[in-house]
Amino acid sequence: MNITEKLPDQIKTLVDQYKNSELTDFDYLIGESGYIPNNEEILTDIIVALSQGKNVLLKGPTGSGKTKLAETLSNLFNQPLFSVNCSVDLDVESFVGFKTIDFKEGKQMIEFVPGPLVQAMKNGHFLYIDEINMAKPETLPIINGVLDYRRQITNPLTNEVIKAKEAFNVIAAINEGYIGTTRLNEALKNRFIIIDISYLQGEQLKKLIKQNTELDDDKLINQFVQLSSDLIEATQQGKVSEDAASIRALLDACDLSGMIPPKRAILRAIIDKLEDDREKEVVRNLAETLFE
Question: Which segments constitute the AAA+ ATPase domain (predicted)?
Answer without folding.
Answer: 52-281
